[in-house]
Amino acid sequence: MTEDRINKDTPYQDLTIGGNIYEAGNAKEFKTGDWRSIKPVWKPDLCKQCGLCFPVCPDDAIPVNKECKREDFDYDACKGCGVCAKVCPFKAIVME
Amino acid sequence: MNNLIEIRWHGRGGQGAKTASLLLADAAFNTGKYIQGFPEYGPERMGAPITAYNRISNEPITVHSNIYYPDYVVVVDDTLLDSVDVTAGLKPDGAIVVNSTLDNETLKGKLKNYSGAIYKIDARKISLETLGKYFPNTPMLAAIVKVSNIMTEEEFMKDMVGSFKHKFAKKPDVIDGNMKALEIALKEVEKIN
Amino acid sequence: MGIRERLSGNEAAATAMKQINPDVVAAFPITPSTEIPQYFSTFVSNGVVDTEFVAVESEHSAMSACIGAEAAGARAMTATSANGLSLMWEMIYIASSLRLPIVMSLVNRAVSGPLNIHCDHSDAMGVRDSGWIQLFSETNQEAYDNLIMAHRIAENKDVLLPLMVCQDGFITSHSIENIELIEDEKVKEFVGKYKPEHYLLNKQEPIAIGPLDVQTYLFEHKAQQAKAMEAAKKVILEVAEDFEKLTGRKYGFFEEYKLEDAEIAIVCMNSTAGTAKATVNRLREQGIKAGLLKVRVFRPFPAKEIAEALKNLKAVAVLDKADSLNAAGGALFEDITSGMFVNNVQVPTVNYVYGIGGRDTTVEELEKVYKDLLEIKESGKIENPYRYLGLRGEN
């Protein structure tokens, strides 16, 4: 179900029936990053790793590593909504 | 027996005319016949006139309409004679069987438009005697079997024991009374015209 | 060689369901199909089936529960009539578009109003374009046989469409008649286990069904449904062939009764066909070459095959037990005549709307239709193609 297999040119014979999606988690293949008009920029020197930003991201665009520390934005997924910048108490996320 | 026999039942909701038509279908089925047993559904309420039908044949039956020219008519309640045209379409070489306590002349008077055979039976008396309650359908079933000669009395009685054992599995004490009702009805159904 | 029994049409349908032993039955009672879930629930209570019986609070929920069950990977069945089917309407389309082979017993009844609980085909005709396979049944026997064949057709990989088996409310559903049942074990073997390729409860393959289908895709998905309906024609015949091997009873798209040398014929569906057979026999005794074509498979519609079967007739009457109220004839008439036109069959054809709201239809009335056809055969003229049978003020 990757985009190169089913797209707007796929003939009906090659579509799954009823539009069923047989590969779970394929949303990550859909890049919503290009919907963005402004983008959040992470300032690691100001970040205290308080953990408030990543739970509020609607697109799961703030990766969290095994040490439970956030990393830089996944700009393929981030739509630039700015919720993370709003919740950051330390001005460590700036919308540009 | 003719190849196809058509019977129309007239009763009142709650008197068991539909059940009787189904029991008759059952009994005929058990003697190897092709059968239909079906009620005409209307806005049914206890006491309202109802109609039920039987077709019984040695050949498969394909017709799926009500019966307008019956060979036999069974009237489970003689008060219907004043309100329902029970002999409508009834074949002159057929017969009508009425549950009634009316004297023969009065009953014939009510059926004066019908030239064929009239049979009378007092199903109320038989039912009260044998069952202690008014269930006219059991005697009426026996009466129509006798009059129409769909099967022999022996075949019929033998089959009904089985049916009642099944039907009254949870109250076996009423089986004997029902069998007795059939037996008396077979004897007492009387041709008056 | 079968079990000789006597059952009503509803008992026959419930018996078929018992022998099929589906995973889920979800239903809401409505006259005249009420007895089917009623009998079935006793089978569940008595432990003679393993089915999860869902006593839902509406028909919308009944169909929703069937959709959920079937999507999860279960074999699901239901039964309904008339306004019950109307309340399912939204979900009827969801079921077919999600390609879920749900099987329904539809006991045909007039869709109110004015309020009427008796038989006509307005319920089935209302969903004729919903993407469900529709099989019609003349008798309790055919309702039973069609249900036994239903899952094999619906669940076929080339089909995957829901299927409804129609029978006439009260006329067959409540009439006790002879029937030949198939032994439980043979039914089990014939129907087989349900093995869906993709289903929600398969933890090896997490899937999503019923996604948003935008302008780019819905057209193609509808075309897939249409192609599946086309493919169903072959499958229906294959399953019928296997069924004949099992029972000796032969089924096709339609039944031709004394049609081969007939000059005039009636086309109709369900129980009226039996009455028409008796009428044909009566007319044949009078030397009139009358015949009958009884449509069993209404969806997919065997247009070409029917046109072929009717091509040598001199006059045809198509009987619709539902009025389309469109000033252009009933649904069956439209399909038959369009099929004839497209296949270059030119036979004078008239439409009779009949039996609405349980109006009884007799041998005598059908005889009148054949007599009308004789006149058309002689004159070659049809003054009014849109007629009524048994309507006060018209006949």
Short description:
The complex is a heterotrimer of chains A (about 100), B (about 190) and C (about 400). By secondary structure, chain A is mostly loops.
Can you give a write-up of this model?
The complex is a heterotrimer of chains A (96), B (193) and C (395). Chain A has 96 residues and is low in regular secondary structure. Chain A has two domains: 1-30, no CATH class; 35-96, Alpha-Beta Plaits. Chain A contains two helices and two strands. Chain A has helices at residues 53-56, 83-87; strands at 40-42, 93-95. In chain A, strands 1-2 form a two-stranded antiparallel ribbon. The radius of gyration of chain A is 17 Å and the shape is elongated. In chain A, 16% of the residues are buried. The radius of gyration of chain B is 15 Å and the shape is globular. In chain B, helix 1 (17-30) crosses helix 5 and helix 3 (123-131) runs antiparallel to helix 6 (175-188). Chain C has helices at residues 9-20, 35-45, 59-72, 82-97, 122-126, 140-154, 184-191, 218-247, 272-285, 303-310, 331-342, 363-379, and strands at 3-7, 24-27, 52-55, 76-80, 103-108, 133-137, 163-168, 176-181, 254-257, 264-268, 290-295, 297-299, 315-320, 349-354, 386-389. Chain C is globular. Chain C is α/β, with parallel strands linked by helices. In chain C, the strands form three sheets. In chain C, strands 3-2-4-5-7-6-12 form a seven-stranded mixed sheet, sandwiched between helices. Chain C folds into two domains: 3-247, 3-Layer(aba) Sandwich (Rossmann fold), CATH 3.40.50; 254-389, Rossmann fold (3-Layer(aba) Sandwich). Chain C has twelve helices and 15 strands. Helix content of chain C is 41%, strand content 19%. Classes of the chains: A little secondary structure (96), B alpha/beta (193), C alpha/beta (395). Chains in contact: A-C, B-C. Chains B and C meet through helix 1 and strand 2 of B and strand 8 and helix 9 of C. Strand 2 (34-40) of chain B pairs antiparallel with strand 8 (176-181) of chain C, so a sheet runs across the interface.
